[in-house]
Amino acid sequence: MRPAPIAVALDAPDLETAAHWASLVTPHVTTVKVGLELYLRYGPDVIASVRGASGVRVFLDLKLHDIPNTVAGAARAVARLKPAILTVHAAGGPAMIRAAVEAVPNTQIAAVTLLTSLSEADLERVGIDGPSEDAVRRLSALAVAAGAQALVCSPREVAAVRAEVGPGITLITPGVRPAGAASQDQARVATPEQALADGADLLVIGRPITGSADPGATAAGIAAALRRVSAATGHQV
Ligand SMILES: O=c1ccn([C@@H]2O[C@H](COP(=O)(O)O)[C@@H](O)[C@H]2O)c(=O)[nH]1
């Protein structure tokens, strides 16, 4: 069975747990994601640990956000780890995004639009007026014009972003929750089936998998659900 387009967020308190989760899910998913918790605690060595013998794709979610020169330097610093994907914040602006793209030509730069943990009320509080979809579309267009090959948005906005940027850009959606699962600190969520049907290319899923009693079986179950959507809609997984 082909692995499903899921990036499992390995937000673990220690390296052994992260590597264990990675070994359980890698038969079923294409990608594992290393975020700030693991990278700041263990540094670059974490990448080899979670990649393991399987050589699974690693998504390095550092959400870089600084002046262009600093972001370019940071991106160059992790290039030798060969992450498949590296995140920057779209709000860093076009020059910063372009600096990251030029610094790591062999890694996909993914621009994070609006964090999926922000509700419409939160967005208003931080000065983003109007529906989240409008801001996400605007940031997506800006990021793609600056050379970003991938975008991170909530599954609620993925159809609108696809309409905005067309077919060639990889759309990555955190904020994915199987039906009935708790949202936790995520605000703009949808099910894996809905995210895929609406055009997402890679679904980021963390706690619903890693917090389950059997992460391997849970990942396999979600992967099977995505294959059913793919068979029904023709959307390739
Ligand atoms: O807008 C964003 C950008 C990144 N993330 C990251 O995705 C995972 C989600 O984990 P869950 O346990 O499934 O909530 C996490 O590592 C975030 O840092 C995001 O949630 N939203």
TrEMBL record:
Signal sequence residues: none
EC number(s) stated in the UniProt entry for this protein: 4.1.1.23
Entry keywords, A to Z: Decarboxylase, Lyase, Pyrimidine biosynthesis
UniProt pathway annotation: Pyrimidine metabolism; UMP biosynthesis via de novo pathway; UMP from orotate: step 2/2
Residues involved in substrate binding: 11, 33, 61-70, 116, 177, 186, 206-207
Leading EC class: lyase
Every Orotidine 5'-phosphate decarboxylase domain range: 5-222
Highest taxon of source: Bacteria
CDD domains referenced in this protein's UniProt entry, alphabetically: OMP_decarboxylase_like
Active site, per annotation: 63 (proton donor)
SUPFAM superfamilies xref list: Ribulose-phoshate binding barrel
Membrane spanning stretches: none
Pfam families named among the record's database cross-references: OMPdecase
Reaction equation(s) it catalyzes: orotidine 5'-phosphate + H(+) = UMP + CO2
HAMAP family listed in its UniProt record: OMPdecase_type1_B
Stated role: Catalyzes the decarboxylation of orotidine 5'-monophosphate (OMP) to uridine 5'-monophosphate (UMP).
Family: Belongs to the OMP decarboxylase family. Type 1 subfamily.
Annotated PANTHER family: OROTIDINE 5'-PHOSPHATE DECARBOXYLASE
Subunit field text: Homodimer.
Protein name from the UniProt record: Orotidine 5'-phosphate decarboxylase
Source species: Streptosporangium oxazolinicum
